[in-house]
Amino acid sequence: MAITQRALLDTQHAFDSVAADYDRSNTANPILCAMRDRVLSEVRRHVVAGGRILDLGCGPGADDEVLGKAGYQMTAIDWSPYMVEQARRRVNDAGLTARVSVQYLGIHQLDQLSAGTFDAAYSNFGPLNCVPDLSNAAVEISARLRPGGVLIASVIGRVCPWEIALYALRGDWDRARVRFAAGSVGVPLNGQTVWTRYYTPTEFERPFVGAGFKRATLRGLGVFAPPPYLEGFAKRHVTITRALQRLDDFVGAWPALRMCGDHFLIVLKKT
Ligand SMILES: C[S@@+](CC[C@H](N)C(=O)[O-])C[C@H]1O[C@@H](n2cnc3c(N)ncnc32)[C@H](O)[C@@H]1O
What's the pLDDT score for residue 240? Predict the structure, then answer.
């Protein structure tokens, strides 16, 4: 229990430390922007206009601004108070306070969220990888969704072909296999530590199936396209990167390939 609390605090402090610059660095990263576009279009595809969405691990609120402007009713939560501060400022500056509410709350504290039911839960770029007890989170998320509601999540996967190839070529086997660790891994961020659990799609969806969900769609993000930390490559090789991203769009949902990718994008429906 004490170890879990320590890990949660490490992760909180790590994200606090990057909150001020997080949005700028994300917006400048063409790979992250392309991935974000794909995740947001999945939201538009699965959630009716004006629907109520619970954003789990909203960061500085980039998606909440886009979705709020598109007419969705957003409740956004994050475990980093500095990220929450950034998101609130952003929502305020965009004049979206009537549509977007930002709360300082961890996903592991969902039982403390004020009453309300949502059409969708949403989690972009790995917040669910930082939750110590995914089974408990699955039950709490299910409790917040109406029947037929969906969870749309981009989750950091285990089999990232670029990463395996890159570090294997360098002979750095420990780094090449880091995503295959059984439990939580301490991932460095700005000199601090984010405690991360990597999942295959099958491992990830198991507790959600136990909580009454069924998979609707699944695809890999960054199967052939490079992962976000290779933004230098993407900037030098714009045409190749775009071609690889289009290839991902074409084949990323194919049976073996959808189990791969820097992230996977999964939609689970509450039955
Ligand atoms: C990689 S960022 C993604 C932020 C945002 N979803 C986006 O797309 O820009 C991960 C976010 O998850 C948050 N986070 C990490 N652990 C969390 C937890 N247990 N509960 C809620 N948020 C958490 C972090 O504070 C951080 O803002």
Answer: 98
Which residues neighbour 202 within 8 Å (Cβ) at sequence distance 6 or greater? 259
Confidence of residue 148 (pLDDT cuts 50, 70, 90): very high
Cα angle 214-68-146, degrees, rounded to a multiple of 5: 30
| Among 125, 154, 155, 193, residue to substitute to test ligand 1 (most atoms within 8 Å of Cβ) | 125
> What is the pLDDT, as a whole number, of residue 198?
98
Query: Given the CA of residue 60, which atom of ligand 1 is nearest to it?
Result: 9
Core vs surface per residue 34-45: b (16+ CB within 10 A) or e:
bbbebbbebbee
pTM over 0.90: yes
Instruction: Compute the distance from residue 164 Cα to the ligand 1 centre, in Å.
Output: 25
Would you say how long the chain is, in residues?
Answer: 271
pLDDT at 260 over 90: yes
* Residue type (1 letter), 104: Y
